[in-house]
TrEMBL record:
The keyword Protein transport applies. This is RanBD1 domain-containing protein. InterPro entries: PH-like_dom_sf, Ran_bind_dom, RanBP1-like, RanBP1_RanBD. It is found in: Nucleus, Nuclear pore complex. PROSITE patterns: RANBD1 (PS50196). It holds the Pfam family Ran_BP1. Its main location: nucleus. Residues 182-196, 221-240 have a biased composition (Basic and acidic residues). Residues 1-37, 182-253 are annotated as: Disordered. The keyword Transferase does not apply. Residues 14-30 have a biased composition (Acidic residues).
Length: 253
């Protein structure tokens, strides 16, 4: 009885093995074409850095000082960049987290920005800035730590170079503003003389007009007197002539 059951079980096991071998594995590529369920269109992704040139690009870890808790809090690990705008020349510091690309820091590098070594650690430095990473302008105190002393020194030197360049721009603007103010003052001082000259010229023209009008009046008066005088001279002669004519008529009578 046992001998008849063993071949049956053996045959069944062989059939199961054959069916298992013939079935494709879960990750096996059968070669059948697979159509995508949804077709996605390519979308251009902008980072806001397209109009800027990269001056510096270093890996680092950023911390932000929490005034409420009076402690340093990690802001993220990623890449810190110094970006210069191609048109206006402004430079900003931008740092993003490595995996999520979330912005950790985003602020301008101004002429007043200075970096200091943090707690005697040559790989880290501290600075203050008006940051816009959270969507609103806030005064922040940052601490950044680099993998090496060389990278930290490169970062500090580049920030110092940019700050000096920004200060020169400020000085040039102040000089230009002072020059414009000076020229404006000189122009204002010259204007009264011009007004006086124009007033004198206007008075001279007015006087000429008045003199001309007076001359015309005198000329008209002279003409009038001349006419009246002529009329008076003519009248006696006419009376005398008429009297002589009467006398002649009487004599003839």
């Amino acid at each position: 009885m046992a001998s008849s059951a063993e071949p049956t079980l053996q045959k069944k096991d062989e059939e199961e093995e054959d069916s298992t071998e013939n079935q494709p594995a879960e990750d096996e590529d059968t070669g059948a074409p697979v159509a995508p369920i949804v077709r996605l269109q390519e979308v251009a992704v902008t980072t806001g850095e397209e109009d800027e040139d990269v001056l510096l690009d270093l890996k680092a870890k950023l911390y932000r000082f929490d005034n409420g808790g009076n402690q340093w809090k990690e802001r993220g690990v990623g890449t810190v960049k110094l970006l210069k705008h191609k048109e206006n020349g402004k430079v900003r510091l931008v740092m993003r987290q490595s995996k999520t690309l979330k912005i950790c820091a985003n602020h301008l590098v101004l002429s007043t920005m200075t970096l200091q070594e943090h707690a005697g650690n040559e790989k880290s430095c501290v600075w203050h800035a008006a940051d816009f990473a959270d969507g609103e302008l806030k005064q922040e105190t940052f601490c950044i730590r680099f993998p090496s002393i060389e990278n930290c020194k490169t970062f500090k030197d580049k920030i110092g170079e940019i700050a000096e360049a920004q200060q020169r721009k400020v000085d040039d603007k102040d000089t230009a503003s002072e020059l414009i103010d000076k020229l404006s003052v000189e122009s204002k001082e010259d204007k009264p003389e011009d007004k006086g000259a124009s007033a004198t010229s206007a008075e001279a023209q007015q006087k000429k007009v008045e003199d001309s009008e007076e001359a015309n009046s005198v000329s008209k008066l002279i003409e009038k007197l001349s006419v009246e005088s002529k009329e008076e001279e003519d009248k006696p002669e006419d009376k005398g002539a008429s009297a002589t004519s009467v006398e002649v008529k009487k004599g003839s009578v």
